[in-house]
Every structure is written in structure tokens, then in C-alpha cells.
């Protein structure tokens, strides 16, 4: 059976039931929500266009690096590559997934804001659906996930990090969802992703302010779990975290993870079209377009 | 278009949709949930009967003082004045709202308990609806809000403080929802307001005990954010907090705030009549009336 | 009127409404959710088969000891006795309930796993329903509850402790829900019980890992409230906790407690059959049966 994409799965609008009811295959065995495909085994380094997947043969952990200079902007192409890589890693039953960046200054600068500027409706819909897909693929990923945040992680960069189960971060960086600073209003599922990691009171204030946390502040509020001196140490800490699941049965772990995360994805999976419509309606308002223009002007000047 | 009251808005029973769907006006621009009225500009000091609104011309921040001796008991009149003042401040696009008391010993002593003693049903309904209105006006207020808690804040006094986005408090005061001590069972939305600020485990225990937190305890659990030495310092800290939103787009900020707070108000806005009925049914039980009598007797003796 | 069992109450499928709407009896007085029976007064020591109930005549607090050697495994018989004892203590209007163990090494080893091994469907249904009943009886118990965790509390042992309002624990013990280690996927209500005590982020990680917290770790994350040097000190701390409710009206306290806990029990009370079906479906999969076999083999070897 082919490896169904997140989008296929979700379009069936039964995902929520699948998440809840613990699917059984015809042999009465548990199956993960996203069917795994018989697939060429990963070994050594596989290069897709904009991501790199490296599997450690000893530990069985796959490291997924965003590799799209200059700042890993989440374009449609990068998001496509990331979803494919996540599915591939999941299908190949890696022991865990570490998300990091090939760029030592920026983890990911977030969504491609040019897609939000005077958008063509059809393309904006495709763009936002892809971002939903990416978040779902990472947030519900069946194997243990960790982020080695080795560069700045603003906006959607932070959303990707919070979709993982653990975060380590290098010093003197910024992480946070600063959407209100460029007039954007995030979706509820992005708020829930934030709230799955840091306390409600902190979330509200940070979202309203558009706060970017410095590494030390992020550690204080629990947005990151540990600080590492350098990228290798960050990767090592992620591997150590992934090893904490060694005594757990992998399928029971996956089902338990999804039960914990079901409240985060419930509304989105029940009404993906509604979230899409909200997004498109808001992005196409004069209010947002003016705010975005001013923000992009500001960025140009600061260069 | 006139400035619709919270009650008008909510009676349309579509508020929940308005909160969620980000209203657009006919020009495609965002509009806040409560329509703003063209209104005389505030400057200097405006006195209504039981509240004082002072706008700092330099900072643009409005300070709303409860000014109803001896202890700012929330009577129908005071609640009316507060709702009007909040709407006025919101409509005049102040940069923020600071809630405080003209009385240096008591922030607010809470609801007028005499309204709960052998109540006439019609009047009790009016009283409780007004309290719902007041809480909604403050909890969903479009501009940044902060409370300078310069006196004791028991029961509904605490509920008002927790409806703000930030709290600073003077030393040696008490704050908390001690309803069970006078046999009252609070509404779910009051619990959610508490829970938006302090952890669930602390909320349950404090509500069950009827706990009043001393300033230092309140700081420890996060019920207040900072302690100030005197009222001026408390007001200054509130102003500093309000300034943290300077980089955020105001409309995006308002919509984000309401998204964060939507779970707190959802059930109330979906069924205000149900909350009202629960309250009236409970208040008119012999159990509560006996408990309230005993409590009021105790207060008399302690004077 | 007879003391209705939790099961009777819940089968009426109106419990959720009862919880929310604050029941009134025909005289307009509040009544607790589970009707209390005229009952022989407890005094001194009452022995049922597998539990001991001791009421302190001075404090009015009842201590319920699990007394089923060797390790207080939750068999159908022990669960039956516990439910009866909880109902009896509640009906006799004790001032509080302390749950502890007669065994100084093990608080409770959790569910009787033999019931899950190659189960007969009918009996498994009865077993799981009884566990639901036990949790509901303790979680919604009308009087103040506290656990003196004087021995290890893995799995369902931990679930029982978290159903209480306060926990004190002796040093060098383990507590936690380690279900994934024996391939089990817990029900949502067990997750919610955990989450009512410790933060969401900690819950997800601990459940996924199947983590057993040492006493000191449990204190750090808030899973236990205090550490006691010995059993007597643990019991004393529980009694001190129960005394913190002295100023609260008992009925208002009960209704407030149930309002706080309503989100934890809502889904279960609305669909007990669904939770039962999920459990039976999962337990009877080859995946779980193989995982459980391996786990039981491991336990044998470690002896």
C-alpha cells in the first residue's frame, strides 16, 4: 500500500476518528495513522533539493537539515521537500527525527512572506494548505522528534520547533511567534502548538506582543528544554532525548503521543477548509496588506 | 453607528462567530467586536459618578479608578459606570487601560452581597447580567489592560484583576476568590478567568479552600506579575507593560488576544441565559441563603 | 433512599448535567451527586476484606488503607472493596479521606495485568468498568481527599494518587504511568487525571516515555506536593491539608470541586461504552498481547 500523504489522509476527514480510535489492520494489528510504504532503506546521506537527510547507522536516528540558502525561508518548494523527507524518515522506521538547519545563523526565517503580498487566491490556498500539511506531518509524526535550533527561529520557524517533542538551542539566538509585528493573526492551531509547550499566560502575552525570546528567556519559560554550546552538542542532546523512549513500545508510544496531541489538531482536522478560508480572508484585507508592506519596507531599510 | 453595549452584542448570540471569524466591515477592513462610536475626545480628567478616568496626554494611557467609598463594592451603579468607562476608553482608542482604586486600602471588596440576600428574582437577574457584561467588557477589551492592585481584591475584585492582561500589587494585601467561605459556587467563566492566569492544580485547590493569597503568595503562583512599593510605582509598572505592545499592530493584537481568550468566554457567550439561570437557582436555595446570613453575621461581629 | 453506586448514577447518562447544574432536592436543598444512604456510623476500625477504614474520632478524618498482600494489585475484588469504602466514608460525612497502603513498600502495583492477558471479553468489560467506577468515585468524591503515598505507585497506583486532591510521598519511591513500557495505551481520562496535576508538556513526555518519577523528581514537577520522612508524617501532612478546607462551606466546596473536575470526566461520562470498547479492542490486539507477554516474562526474570 502506498505511503499516503498527510493531505490525502486528512482529506478523508476521518482522521480525527482514526486518531481517537486506534486503527487496526485486517490482521488486528495496530497501524500508524499515515500508512508506511515499502521503501528503499536509507543509509548514509540522501540529498533532495532543499533538505538533507542523514541517518546514523549506529543510532538509527535521522537528521533532517533544512538547506535552502540564505535563511531557509519556507517556500512551497522547501515545504514540499520537508514533508517528503518527514514521511520518508517515518516510513523507514528510523528511531527518531532531529530537525536542524544547514545554516548556522538561521534555523528558519519562517513563511515566505512574498506569498502573502497581493496574493493570487488559488496560489495562496495552495501555499497555506502546504503549511498545514507540514505542521501536521511534524506534529503527529509517529517517531520521536527533536529540534536542534542552531539559528534564529522566528514565526513559522518557531512553529516547526514547537511541533517537535524536545528543543535544544544555541546561545544568543531568537525564537518566537512575532506575527502581530507584521499585522498577521495566526491560526488557532499555531496558538495551540505554542500552548502545548509554554503556559497559557505566557503564550497570550508573547503572542500579543509578538515577542521574540532570547535563548535564555526561552529556556526560562520552557520554550526550549536545554541550551547547547554548539551544533554538535545540540544534536547529541537531541539523540539523548530520543533514547529516553527506548523502553517504550513504539506503537503504544505513537498512539499515546497522538492522544496527547489530539486536542491541538482536532479543530484543524475537523475543518481544514475553514482555517484556509479564515487565512485567505484575512490576508487579503487592506489592513494586513498595508501592515505587511510596512514590515517589508522596514526589513529592506534595516539591511 | 452607535457604540453597541456588550449586552447588545452578546444577545445576538453570534459573538462567538464574530470572535472567531474576524469581522470585516464593508470596506474589507477589520473591525473590533464591539463597534466604536464617534465620541468626544478624552483629555485631562473626566468624572462620572463612581469612576474616574484620567488620560495621560503623553502616553495615551487611560487610568480607570473605582471611586465608590468605602470599599468599591460592585453595586449595579458602580458596574454600570465601569462598563461605560471601559467602552469610552476603548472607543477613544487609548493606548491602554489601567484599572485601579481611589481607595488605598481596598481595590474592590467584590459584589454587593446584599443583592444576593433574599433577592427579588427580576432584580437578581439584572444584577448578574450586569456582572457578566462587566467581565466580558474587561476580558475582551480591545486595547491592552493592566491592573494596579493597590488594595485588597477579594472575590469579584480578584475576578476583575484577572480579566486584565497584567497585575501589579502592593505588599501586605489579599487577593483571591474566597466564594466557598460564604457558600457561593462561582460560575465556570470565573474559574476559567482564574485558570487563564494560574495553573489548574493551584486553581482547584484555591477555589475549594476559598483561599485569599497574600501579595507574596500571589506573586509566587503567578496571580500577580510584580510587586510595587507604592501606587505610583504600580501605575508605572502597568504603563511599562502596556508599552511592550508598541511593536505590535493594534488590530492584529486585538484579534490575537480574543483568539487566546475565546475558550474562556465560549460557553458563556453561547448560553448567557443558562449561566444566569444556574446563578439564580443556586442563590435562591436555603443552603446558600443560610450560608450567606452566617457570613454577613460574622462580618458584622468582626467590625 | 439507597446509596446509589457510581455505576448506577452514570448509567443514567445525565451525570454530566447533574455535575453542571447543581442538583436540588424537593426541599430546594443541594444534594451531592451520589446519594448518601442512612448508614451505620463508623467508629474505630472497620475491616472489609481487602481494605481497612479507620476513622479518627477527634479529627473526623477517615483513613482508607489498601490491604491486599503482597502489592495491592487492583483486582476486581480490591476495586469492589475500595469503591464500597469510598462510598461509605462519603456517606458518613467524614471530614476527609486519606488513601494509603498497609504495605510499606508498595502503595499499589496497579491493575491486575493477568486480567488483560488473553481475556474473556465479558470479564474484561466488567474489569474495566470497575476501574472506571473506582476512578470516578475517587476523582469526584464529595469530601476532601489526600494520598499518603508510602510505597511505589506505578501505573494505576499513580492514577489513584492523582485522583486525590493532594499527595505526600516517602523518599526513594517511584510513581508514574509507565503504560507504554508494557505496550498499553491509556484512556484519555487517565491522561486528563495526570494533566490535572502536572503541566501538559511534562505529561506528554512522561506518558510517551513510560516514565517512573523518583520521589524527588515527582516533587519537582508537582506530581506530589510534599515529601514526608515516614508514614505517620505523611498521614499528618494529609490531615493538615484536609484542615485547609475548614473555612469553606462543605456543599459549596463539593460543587466547586466538581466544576473544576468536570472537564476531566466529561468525555468519559458522556460515553462510557466508547471508552470500554476502545479498551477491549486494543487489549485484544496481537500487538498488545505480545507486548504484555514480553513484559510479564521480563518481570518473572527480574525476580
TrEMBL record, chains A, B, C:
It catalyses: (3Z)-dodecenoyl-CoA = (2E)-dodecenoyl-CoA; (3Z)-octenoyl-CoA = (2E)-octenoyl-CoA; (3Z)-decenoyl-CoA = (2E)-decenoyl-CoA; (2E)-tetradecenoyl-CoA = (3Z)-tetradecenoyl-CoA. The keyword Amino-acid biosynthesis does not apply. The keyword NAD does not apply. It is found in: Mitochondrion matrix. GO terms for molecular function: delta(3)-delta(2)-enoyl-CoA isomerase activity. Pathway: Lipid metabolism; fatty acid beta-oxidation. Its main location: mitochondrion. Keywords: Acetylation, Fatty acid metabolism, Isomerase, Lipid metabolism, Mitochondrion, Transit peptide. One of its GO terms (cellular component) is mitochondrial matrix. GO terms for biological process: fatty acid beta-oxidation. PANTHER family: ENOYL-COA DELTA ISOMERASE 1, MITOCHONDRIAL, ENOYL-COA HYDRATASE-RELATED. Key enzyme of fatty acid beta-oxidation. Able to isomerize both 3-cis (3Z) and 3-trans (3E) double bonds into the 2-trans (2E) form in a range of enoyl-CoA species, with a preference for (3Z)-enoyl-CoAs over (3E)-enoyl-CoAs. The catalytic efficiency of this enzyme is not affected by the fatty acyl chain length. Homotrimer. This is Enoyl-CoA delta isomerase 1, mitochondrial. It comes from Drosophila ananassae (Fruit fly).
Amino acid at each position: 500500500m502506498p505511503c499516503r500523504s498527510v493531505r490525502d489522509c486528512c482529506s478523508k476527514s476521518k482522521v480525527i476518528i482514526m486518531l481517537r480510535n486506534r486503527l487496526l489492520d485486517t490482521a488486528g494489528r495496530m497501524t500508524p495513522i499515515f500508512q508506511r510504504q515499502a521503501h528503499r532503506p536509507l543509509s548514509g546521506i540522501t540529498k533532495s533539493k532543499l533538505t538533507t537527510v542523514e541517518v546514523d547507522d549506529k543510532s538509527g536516528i535521522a537528521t533532517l537539515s533544512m538547506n535552502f540558502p540564505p535563511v531557509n525561508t519556507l517556500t512551497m518548494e522547501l515545504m514540499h521537500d520537508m514533508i517528503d523527507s518527514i514521511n520518508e524518515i517515518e516510513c523507514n522506521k528510523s528511531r527518531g527525527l532531529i530537525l536542524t538547519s544547514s545554516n548556522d545563523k538561521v534555523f528558519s526565517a519562517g513563511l515566505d512572506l512574498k506569498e502573502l503580498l497581493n496574493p493570487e487566491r488559488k496560489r495562496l490556498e495552495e501555499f497555506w494548505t502546504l503549511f498545514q500539511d507540514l505542521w501536521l506531518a511534524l506534529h503527529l509524526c509517529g517517531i520521536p522528534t527533536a529540534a536542534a535550533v542552531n539559528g534564529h527561529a522566528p514565526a513559522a520557524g518557531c512553529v516547526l520547533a514547537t511541533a517537535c517533542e524536545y528543543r535544544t538551542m544555541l546561545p544568543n539566538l531568537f525564537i518566537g511567534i512575532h506575527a502581530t509585528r507584521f499585522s498577521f493573526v495566526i491560526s488557532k492551531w499555531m496558538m495551540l502548538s505554542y500552548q502545548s509547550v509554554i503556559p497559557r499566560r505566557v503564550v497570550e502575552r508573547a503572542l500579543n506582543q509578538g515577542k521574540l525570546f532570547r535563548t535564555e528567556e526561552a529556556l526560562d519559560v520552557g520554550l526550549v528544554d536545554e541550551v547547547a554550546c554548539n551544533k554538535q552538542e545540540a544534536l547529541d542532546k537531541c539523540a539523548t532525548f530520543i533514547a529516553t523512549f527506548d523502553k517504550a513500545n513504539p506503537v503504544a508510544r505513537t498512539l499515546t503521543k497522538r492522544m496527547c496531541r489530539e486536542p491541538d489538531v482536532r479543530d484543524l482536522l475537523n475543518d481544514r477548509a475553514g482555517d484556509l478560508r479564515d487565512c485567505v480572508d484575512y490576508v487579503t484585507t487592506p489592513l494586513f496588506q498595508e501592515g505587511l508592506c510596512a514590515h517589508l519596507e522596514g526589513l529592506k531599510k534595516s539591511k
